[in-house]
Amino acid sequence: MDEQITIVIEPGDQGWWIATVPEVPGAVSQGRTEKEAREMVLDCLRELMAFRREAALQNVSAEAKIERIKLAG
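Structure tokens predicted for Type II toxin-antitoxin system HicB family antitoxin:
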């Protein structure tokens, strides 16, 4: 399993930088600098994963086993 994610940072309009995580649809953000765009898209990724996790777990049966793992050590 690949334990990395990809962040694509591209120049946007009016001096902004746009950052996306291609592996995760919806993980998009922007910043005034490349560094800020990177930090913002990582925050977006964390929030998006938390939201999707909560939504997905609402439909899990009581008998299901739920395991959380860390991808990178």
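The first strand starts at residue 8 and ends at 11.
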